[in-house]
Amino acid sequence: MTDLLRLLKLFTPYRRWMLGGIALGSVVILANVALLALSGWFIASMALAGLGLQTIAYFAPAALIRGLAILRTGARYGERLVTHEATLRCLAELRVWFYERLEPLGPAAMDTWRGGDLLSRIRADIDSLDNLYLRIVAPVTNALLCGIVIVAGLAWFDTRIALLDLAALMLAGAVLPLLALKLGDAAGRGLTEARAALDGAATDTVRGLGELAVLGAVTRQRERVAGLAERLIRHQRRQMWVGAIGRALSGLTANLALWGTLILVIPRVAAGDMPGPQLAMLALGVLASFEAVAALPTAFAAFGETAAAARRLVEIADATPVVTAPDPAAARTPARFDIAFDDVSMRYRDEADWALAGFSLTLEAGEAVGLVGDSGAGKSTILALIQRFREFQAGEITIGGVSVRDIDDATLRQTISVVAQRTHLFNASIRDNLLLAKPDASDDEVREALRLAGLEEEIAHFPDGLDTLVGEVGTRLSGGQARRVAIARAFLRDARILLLDEPTEGLDADSEARVLEALGNLMQGKTTLLVSHRPRALAFVGRVMRVSKSDLVTAGS
Amino acid sequence: MAVSQRPSHGGEAKRHERWLKDRAGAVKGTLMLATGSGLVGGLALIAQCWLVARVLDATIIDGAGLNEVWQWLWPLLGVFALRALASIASDALAFEAAARLKRTLRDQVMNRLAALGPRWMEGQRSGEIANVLGGAVEGIEQYVAAYLPQKLLSAMIPLAILVAVLPLDWVSGLILLVTAPILPLFMVIVGRGAEALNQRQWRRLSLMGAHFFDAIEGLTTLKQFGASRREAEAVGRMADEYRSATMRVLRVAFLSSLVLEFFATLGVAMVAVYVGFRLYYGQLDFLPGLFALLLAPEFYRPLRDMGANYHARMEAIGAVGELAPVLETEAETRDESEGETQGDAKDETDAAAQTRTARPLPSDPIRTIRFDGVGFRHDAANEDGDGVESVDLTLARGECVALVGPSGAGKTTLAKLLLGFLAPGAGRIEIDGVDLREIDVEAWRARLGYLPQRPTLFAGTIAENLTLGAPNATPDEIHAALLRADAQGFVAALEDGLDTWLGDGGSGLSGGQIQRLALARTLLSQPEVLILDEPTAALDGDTARRVMAGVHSASANAATLLVTHDIDVARTADRLVFLDRGHVVEQGTPAALEATGGAFARFALLAEEGAA
């Protein structure tokens, strides 16, 4: 809840939009209640006047009825535009806020929160917070506002009806939905589990279909999936019952409020204590008043999920960066580009095992060294440490004799360029992806970089050349091409230290040859660390070092 | 958000919807009952309005007291109860219809997968297919449970209201009658315009909307280029552009709701005003006039509710887009997955071979397997596939042949050809002289043992996983298989041992443990032909040695095809075939090949340097 409030505070610059949307939303509801109540009063009065039992100045109410209809229609359109405008403005604010908090955390944050899962979780969480105003804040505020106005209006005619309507509104709008939510919650947890189990089994079945076929176990797995599907349906059924009964009871509450109104008011009318048309007005008004709480069940249902999303995002946003930047005054710029790891040890958490223990390695400026070793031996850790994505606990890492801890971020990025198996290509034009490395590069520079990466001709064949979108259907870059775009970026960057993280892993033989040719060009004169298992790639370095967790052995050649 | 839904092409969407409607025919009875309950609710609503009108009429016009109107107030309670029950019944019945349809669809998908088999799966993205079984089937639920019954009701309930109002007050009836067809008509016209606009803008909008997530995904890359701070500004700018572009679309898209609201609200107002004036001039009685006014908002309500179910329809259409291809076009997808097959074998698919020429295996046990000029090329789209060309090799009972070569040489492709997951485009694979394509698939599979590069363990206990292929294995046999796969130690160390529960994909175990358990599972069924694809990939050197010793002792009487790029593992084979770029470069015993200083020797040397 505090997390939600904190995120809501972010949206204060847009409070005018938000309040405007709520005001219009209330107008929509109140106009309808007024329209129906007034219509009831109007036709009853007209009927009595027609029978000569009373007189009526019919012009004003008839015009008001039409006016209310038009007001409701216009307010409805305005409400939808304004609430969406508010939502989209909040969305922009939220995204910038979150990005600015995630950015200093760097790649370390991305690994810590369970890798690939993090992204899909952030996506879902941001999506559900995008709707915080539209799905929760606006309907709840509207219900409160309209509820108060309606009850006050009713009280002007009959206090007992006002109290009756208040109780019924609270029952239908809050008590029953919350009760359903509580009952549904237990079912909901089971539902999530059942769905996850089914999805998991589906993934396993498809992934392992070959093994199942060879083992002759396809039928057994099929029965298993069917069983899990049944379990899911059982959970869904329970939730369906809760929802269906809740809806029916809410409707019943509104009808009983109408019934109660009739019973309470009819004696007053019969006693001459209240004019007849007011009975019609109160009856129709009470029945229409339930529109005010109609959106509440959805809002309550979304609340738990949204609060959890807020909690997770705030937790990420509040995390402390694992690496602290050097004091700007003390920052130094290396003049040479030799690298030294001196007895470096690193672990990811205080209680964890060493991910890297007593690692030492020296690279002369311009030297290329290969790193091999089992997965988990610490190769990626070494690359992360020199990029200052991770902190090390013992030893020292220097570039040109300067500790990496003393190099400021901008300088370090200018010094190091990276070509990785998983270099991200942004969903933008190829040109934009290249300009990332050097925003002010000229077209000639871009072309030269592409030529050196062996991509010039292939890009020229794309429909829009350099302006082709990377993700565009039909022009998807192959794995090898994507890798060479990353190499072209590195050419543009022209940093003096080069980190190659499995640059040809996952490529077929032809692509590998082309990527290696481009890498050969790129490595000229640069201090290079190459992590790879591919013999052809390792042939490009002067020295290969095997990294293993327990003992670190250097081998020359 | 209103625009996050991808507008589908009109024709395709219609086809998908028809497909789903056809399938929903199977649960028609239950759906009709659900709709019927909804209709009972609608009729009860008309009765309710009539009773309320009677009460108000009696009180206001005739000055009746409470005692005189109890005769209508009591039945009113009964009507309320009936409406509540009808609402529950309708929901429950619609749910059961949807549940039954989901069950049927899921069964059909599973049957399809089993029939199409692993060969078809080779050309598919496994994540998408898995989603068909899970998410896509669930995606049709709301369409069946909410949209379809509501669609019928949105025609039937207004009609019932008209039938009730017209004879009593034809003017009000006429107002409703005239506005009713205009409503959907206008919605269609406005909706068309909005949809066309959406389709043009959808790509742009979704690109802009996704920019933020793209930036987060690429944060490491942004950092590496020192561009991550700069990007914050771009995130803000893009979100802002997204807002203005979205609002341009919404301004038009919301027009349809404006039209709906306008006619619905104005309809009620007009009924009120016209009824009022006719009452004033004595042309109408209060009772029918009030009855018409009470029913007027209810007349438009089902039409409005339809709008809320539009989302369910879009979701279902999207789901059918995933479901239909798997359930329908088996022949086509199959050809596609086989890619550019070169020879005359193009239409010799699994099923065709099974039904036309399926032959039992010629001998028991299998003696010799021969690849004769075998070629295979993956289609261009399958990037990871590595083709092979004119491969000749033999594999005899009791022999272990290692396929060695750099990644991408075609080792795994050869293994899959022997498994029958791929069919050779050229040449043939003979089992004791009989073409593999003519052999009954089930019979062939029963002789095989297969350990893929990344084996799959299934949710269940370790014991259940081990005995998948050998349900009748004795504890001793299980113990022996575990010993050979070097898995006995860690399984015994687990608190629940063989009864330890594993999550999906073997979660809870390390990659090396999964690989060893999967190997034990493969060995347990005592296959005659053993195909191992990188069996030691996730294992350290010592474990790999122990595991290979176990494999060799278990497979003394089997023909073993061992795919590996690990030199130490390759050296344990009887014979070694070195592949590069789809061709057999050389073959012989490991020792002989190393002595001749050919491709394998160079490969081994490079690896030694790396692995020293």
Description:
The complex is a heterodimer of chains A (557) and B (612). Chain A is α/β, with parallel strands linked by helices and 557 residues long. Chain A has two domains: 2-158 and 274-317, no CATH class; 339-555, 3-Layer(aba) Sandwich (Rossmann fold). Chain A is built from 18 helices and ten strands. Chain A has helices spanning 2-10, 15-50, 59-112, 116-130, 132-157, 159-207, 209-215, 218-270, 276-288, 296-317, 379-386, 409-415, 430-435, 443-452, 456-460, 479-493, 509-523, 535-538; strands spanning 339-346, 356-363, 368-372, 394-399, 402-403, 416-420, 497-501, 527-531, 543-546, 553-555. A six-stranded mixed sheet of chain A has the order 6-7-8-3-9-10. A four-stranded antiparallel sheet of chain A has the order 2-1-4-5, with helices on one face. The radius of gyration of chain A is 34 Å and the shape is elongated. The model of chain A is unreliable at 550-557 (pLDDT under 50). Chain B is α/β, with parallel strands linked by helices and 612 residues long. In chain B, 65% of the residues lie in helices and 10% in strands. In chain B, strand 4 (426-431) and strand 5 form a beta hairpin. In chain B, helix 2 (28-60) packs antiparallel against helix 3 (66-121), helix 3 packs antiparallel against helix 5 and helix 3 runs parallel beside helix 11 (330-338). Chain B is elongated, with a radius of gyration of 35 Å. The chains are: A alpha/beta (557), B alpha/beta (612). At the A-B interface, helix 2, helix 3, helix 4, helix 6 and helix 7 of A face helix 2, helix 3, helix 4, helix 6 and helix 7 of B.
